[in-house]
Amino acid sequence: MKINRRIYDRIDNINWFSNCGNPLTKENKNQSIIQVNSWEEAKKWYSDANWEDTTLEAGNLLTEFLHSKYPNKYLEWNPTLKDAKRYIESSLSAKLLNYKDQFNLDTVFVDCVKWDVVTAIMEFAYSDCKGIPHFFLDLLMVYENGNFPCGWDGDYPYSGKLVVY
Fold first, then answer.
1. Of 66, 127, 131, 156, whose Cβ has the fewest other Cβ atoms within 10 Å?
2. Phi and psi torsions of 77, nearest 5°
3. Integer distance in angstroms from the first to the last C-alpha of the chain?
4. Residue from 114, 144, 116 nearest 59 by CA
5. What is the dihedral of CA 134, 108, 39, 60, to 10 degrees?
């Protein structure tokens, strides 16, 4: 499956973390978001096992959906993922390492962002599949607003709020 270039253009045009620490705008502030106000707070959230569990569960829901509803398309998962990872390594990894150093963060930060973005690419690649989950494309919109989605307060997918810096 060929990944549509539009998703790469969206990612290439992100002004990464430019709005962190600023109040969320009306467009991205709603009752399903908790805002944190520092990289230290964000680090507590993205380092928490609940965030890893949440993003793993969201990724599992995606692959489970494709496997059960679109098995022929699901067969294309591994080569498509390989292409998405190649893009991440060539276009995003160096930027993330710079931000890690700039904000005195750790490799968990880099890994979280890479996972979010590669899985958003996968959701986009399969967006023609009716009813596909879109957790990571929602996270991508947070990144596009210059913020950092860093946690989940609740029991995903049943309840909770996205934590954003």
1. 131
2. -55, -55
3. 34
4. 116
5. 20
Q: How many residues belong to the chain?
A: 165
Q: Tabulate helix, strand, coil % of the chain (nearest 5).
A: 60, 5, 35
Instruction: Give the C-alpha separation, 153 to 115, whole Å.
Output: 19
pTM over 0.90: yes
Q: How many CB atoms lie within 10 A of CB 80?
A: 18
Q: Please name the residue that has the structure tokens 């810096």.
A: 165
The residues, ordered by sequence, that sit 6+ positions from 105 with a Cβ below 8 Å of its Cβ are 39, 43, 99
Over its length of 165 residues, how does the chain's per-residue pLDDT go in tens digits? 899 999 999 999 999 999 999 988 766 555 699 999 999 999 999 999 999 999 999 999 999 999 999 999 999 999 999 999 999 999 999 999 999 999 999 999 999 999 999 999 999 999 999 999 999 999 999 999 999 999 999 999 999 999 999
Per-residue exposure over 132-141, b if at least 16 CB sit within 10 Å of its own CB, e if not:
bbbbbbebbe
Number of neighbouring beta carbons within 10 Å of residue 17: 19
Instruction: Please report, to the nearest 10 degrees, the dihedral formed by the alpha carbons of residues 106, 55, 39, 101 taken in order.
Output: 30
